[in-house]
Amino acid sequence: MLVIHDVTKYYRNKLVLEHISLDIPSGSCIGLVGPNGAGKSTLLKILASIIQDYQGKVQLNNTKSTFQKKVLGYVPQEICLEQSISAYSNLCFFGKLYGLSGRQLKKRATEVLEEIGLSSHAKNKVLHFSGGMKRRLNIGCALMHQPKLIIMDEPTVGIDPQSRRHIFEMIRHLQETGCTIIYATHYMEEVEQLCNKVAFLDCGKIVEQGDISTLIQKYTTPSVFVKAKNLQVTALDKLGQISAYRQGFLIKTEMPIAVMKQILLMYQANTSELERLELVKPRLEDVFFTLTGSELREGVHSSSKESSKIGGVS
Amino acid sequence: MRAMFLLEMKKNLQDHGLLFWMLILPIAFIILATAIFTSGSDEATKQQVIMSIIPGYAVMFVFFIMISMVTTFLKDKDTGMTARIASTPITPKFYLLGKWIPYMVIVWIQIVILLVFGKLVYQIPIEQPFLLLFLSLALAFTATGFGLSLALLVKTENMGIALTQVIGLGGAMLGGLWVPLKFMPDFLQTIAYFLPQYWAHQAFQDALNGVLIHKDFLQTILIIMAFGCGGYLLAVLRYPKFLKQARG
């Protein structure tokens, strides 16, 4: 179990993280989402022991920080690899930093190359790799020591669908082996596909956290999309909240199946007029916008130590 | 630390720019300076000038390693490598040592090659080779110690290059590497005592001529290495801020 308790972080006078508390059970995969400047990367850096001057407590299975580093694999947002050496050498380098050596190191490097699909490029210089290959190797370097906790900061930025799928398969495999994964991203569909829990971070605070399906149920309403000839809004009024959408109408309702039945009944006599009838499932993205709003962000929120103190006093 | 050392050595061996700064440029300068300053001189004066130029230029050019050190540290900082390494169990002290020692080895090899070049081409005497080896190590320690602290202090590569010129060329000028100290004003001679270049140059000349006594050798080693230790301490103190500025 990873326990993040009341973590607060200032950069000079700017409040970047405010009383963050999060319990992450062993073996779970939690998505960390939030707009730019929400504090995701800062939180990940704290968890990865890169930032050590913060208030609060981070504890993994009641261990001390030095031990924590050995069981932790950090995949940074940037591609942090030595470009002038081979994929195999990069893996060996990171393996050595985690204390691997000799046969164990070679064996593990070969296994990881297989896992990330780069066995045939093992001896090639990273410099000549595609973006997707570099991303996979970037992840592979964090897996050399078989960590129990893996922190991934936007690991799929700017890659092709094939590499993305491969990375997803790797993450699912890691989940099966019992790894705890913290996955920060802007892509909600990735969180829906990979994670069982999600935490929304905005302006340095966790605004909501929990089970993905529970949050979708809590914050969104399912909709039915209907497109038909000679369709009058008045005919749909009583079915739910109506809005125009892609030359048809979107009906927000708690009982989408019942609404679909009613619409089908309306067109029973003349089915050819009904062009489209679809159930629109709410997405995690809807929860995100509900919680964080849809206005553009400048990147960094700017509560200062002074202003937060004043706020606290008043 | 061994992993850091091996990686850094591997990278440096592939860097042809380093070969230029560390060997081609100093050899070219030695040849040029010797040709200019010995032209028309008698044999005794010629030998005296050569005995000043070769160790002088060897001492001056070791400080140019600081450019490579600044470049590699800033690159690591900007690519996120520094932050990533900080997430691994390696401690900051060993991280810095692992990055530092390869440059020490490179500079030590550089000094040895430049002195051997002087011996083969200009027939300079090498009377006390063991003392010279230790002096070379101490100088390598100091020049790269300066480089280490500079690499963690500067924010841009240009700033690093500019300060390297100040330390390398300024130290050479004030330390009597270009013009013998006796021809310089008194106050500049006093300043020279505070520069590692002066102490290294004097000891190198004496060891080449076979007149370096053990007391002076130890004194020089201690003074030179004190500068290097200062550089390392400054780097260790600066590291947390350097890490804060790092991407990743």
Structural notes for this entry:
- The complex is a heterodimer of chains A (314) and B (248).
- By secondary structure, chain A is of the alpha/beta class.
- Chain A folds into two domains: 2-217, Rossmann fold; 221-281, Alpha-Beta Plaits.
- Chain A contains twelve helices and 14 strands.
- Chain A has helices at 40-47, 65-70, 87-97, 102-115, 131-143, 161-176, 188-194, 212-219, 233-236, 256-266, 284-292, 305-313; strands at 2-11, 14-24, 29-33, 55-60, 72-75, 149-153, 180-185, 197-202, 205-211, 223-228, 241-245, 248-252, 274-280, 303-304.
- In chain A, the strands form three sheets. A six-stranded mixed sheet of chain A has the order 5-6-7-3-8-9, with helices on both faces. A four-stranded antiparallel sheet of chain A has the order 4-1-2-14. A four-stranded antiparallel sheet of chain A has the order 11-12-10-13, with helices on one face.
- In chain A, helix 6 (161-176) links the parallel strand 6 (149-153) and strand 7.
- The radius of gyration of chain A is 24 Å and the shape is globular.
- Chain B is mostly helical and 248 residues long.
- Chain B has one domain (2-245).
- Chain B has eleven helices and no strands.
- The longest helix of chain B is centred in the C-terminal third of the chain and has 32 residues, at 214-245.
- Chain B is elongated.
- The interface between A and B is medium-sized, with 26 and 23 residues.
What is the topology?
The complex is a heterodimer of chains A (314) and B (248).
Chain A: E1 2-11, E2 14-24, E3 29-33, H1 40-47, E4 55-60, H2 65-70, E5 72-75, H3 87-97, H4 102-115, H5 131-143, E6 149-153, H6 161-176, E7 180-185, H7 188-194, E8 197-202, E9 205-211, H8 212-219, E10 223-228, H9 233-236, E11 241-245, E12 248-252, H10 256-266, E13 274-280, H11 284-292, E14 303-304, H12 305-313
Chain B: H1 2-13, H2 16-37, H3 43-62, H4 65-79, H5 81-86, H6 92-122, H7 129-153, H8 157-174, H9 186-192, H10 196-209, H11 214-245
Helix pairs in contact in B: 1-6, 2-3, 2-6, 3-6, 3-8, 3-10, 4-7, 4-8, 6-7, 7-10, 7-11, 10-11
